Amino acid sequence: MTKPLRLELDRSAKTPLADQIGKGIRAAIESGVLAPGARLPSWQDLAAQLGVARGTVRSAYEKLSSAQLIVASRATGTHIADRPSFPVRKDKAPAPGSFMEMYQELTAGPAIFQMGVPAQETFPATLFARMRAQAVRIEASAPAIYPDPRGELDLRREIAAYLALARGIECAPSQIIITSGFSGGLGLALRVLGLEQKKVWMENPGFPFTRHGLALARLSIAPIPVDADGIDVDYGLKHAPDAALVVVTPGQQAPLGSTLSLARRSRLLDWATRTKAWVIEDDYLSELQLKGRATPALASLDRAGRVIHIGSFSKTVTPSLRLGFVVAPAALASRFAEAAACLAPAPGPAVQLATADFMREGHYLRHLRRTKRVYAAQGDALLKQLRSRSANVAIAGLAAVLRLPDGAPDLAIAREAASFGLAPTPLSLWCASKASARPGLLLGVATSPQKRIEASCERLFQIIGRHA
Given CA atoms 365, 366, 369, 372 in this order, what sign does their dihedral have? Predict the structure, then answer.
């Protein structure tokens, strides 16, 4: 090498100097500045050039050699290793109109009106961080063995106790499988049931990610309309009586917010028992009912073991935990455990142990009570602002449903709103087909702080007016 290697070191940075040297040389290799065969200074010479200890450069060289980026020889010195050149590949944006484009648009944020995200200001983040740090220390010092694929027993016990108290479900910890959120629970359930090519009832409108997941599992989807009493069971019995599965949000229908009536619950369970069909209950909001007490879970009425209850901490705590759970019917508990062990083991122990402590010490229930009060106030304030501008609006679960005139481009409105830090969800995306789609916007209550609601609503209706 004929000229000194230019490396910039930041001695005030937390990154060790050896790592900075290695990163600089690696970048020079990958950018082509250092070609294969190029000679590097000896580690003694480079140490003198950079003004660092010899051992620092030697450590950097050893790591580069382990990565097969350089080759050291006493006879010829240290050279850049020969290796094939690979073109730099950049991630491509999702194809327009694809599922992943929709997924990224719906989960981008944080933003005003965003759905599916709890309010950060209500969560005791410092307390939970301390518990999680303690759990990480416990995990790091534990014996090097595989954890229970069903999940940590402490968390499964706490969930069983919570479900008995808040959701009316009597179950043993052995029936509970910890998953990576609702989607992990849905995937696990579909693997266990093995219903490929079978027919499934899906609420219309209903959660688009669930609909796509059922399609990926090669199920034939029968869209079932929803009204003020929840999913129309009689419609399903008339048009798809041979279905083998129903996926339903009985507590607060997503996205319209209706509660499945007792008569329809009974009719659905009677049909499932008679035909040996399965029911997946998506209890996505648990007991976050803003007005009054949440109705008991559908699984609490199940006497024949046909309901698979799936819950999640994403809406009540934070989606970044990626933590959920399945309550398997007793007859299926061993099959769920086997599937978890072989195909979808529970997330790492630390996050589970922290959540178990959070629940055991009463923080989770206190958090839910505090959150309900805040959300109720925000929902009232949002509804007041919306009704001053439109009569066709209602609170549904943790969202306000703003209906738009037929033909209104709700997707275009939502995309324009995103440029202003607003994230309304187009209602049409929740519908099974264009024929059944009705334009509207879903506005998340949790992400609508009262001090910003008026200005945000004003901006939103300006955008709607431009598309009217």
Answer: negative
The token pair that represents 39 in the structure block: 């000679």
**N-term to C-term CA, the chain:** 68
User: What one-character-per-residue DSSP string does 440-451 give?
Assistant: EEEEESTT--HH
| Cα–Cα distance, 22 to 427 (Å, whole number) | 51
3 state SS of 407: coil
Residue type, 185: G
> Residue 223: helix, strand or coil by DSSP?
strand
Q: Is 350 helix (H, G, I), strand (E, B) or coil?
A: helix
Using alpha carbons, select from 205, 210, 113 the residue that is nearest to residue 442.
Answer: 113
Please tell me the distance from the alpha carbon of residue 397 to that of residue 129, in angstroms, as a whole number: 29
pLDDT tens profile 172-190: 999 999 999 999 999 999 9
The beta-strand segments (E) located in 347-409 are 393-396, 399-403
Q: Are 348 and 151 in contact (CB under 8 A)?
A: no
pLDDT tens digits, residue range 22-37? 998 988 888 888 889 8
CA distance 298 to 397: 17
DSSP state letters, 298-318? GGGG-SSS-EEEEEESTTTT-
Q: Are the CB atoms for 8 and 28 separated by under 8 Å?
A: no
355-356-360 Cα angle (round to 5)? 120
Query: Looking at residue 1, what is its pLDDT?
Result: 44
- DSSP one-letter code for 396: E
User: Which of 400, 399, 420, 398 lies closest to 466, judged by CA?
Assistant: 420
CB 41 within 8 A of CB 4: yes
For residue 374 the two structure tokens come to 């805040």
- Which residues on neighbouring strands pair with residue 444, listed in sequence order? 399
Confidence check: pLDDT of 137 > 60? yes
State how far the Cα of 231 lies from the Cα of 250, in Å rounded to an integer: 8
Reported as type and span, the H/E element at residue 178 is: strand 176-179
Rg (CA), the chain: 28
Residue holding tokens 């049909």? 271
Instruction: In whole angstroms, give the CA distance from residue 210 to residue 293.
Output: 26
CB 328 within 8 A of CB 349: no
Amino acid letter for position 147: P
Q: pTM for the whole thing? A: 0.83
What's the confidence (pLDDT) of residue 5? 61
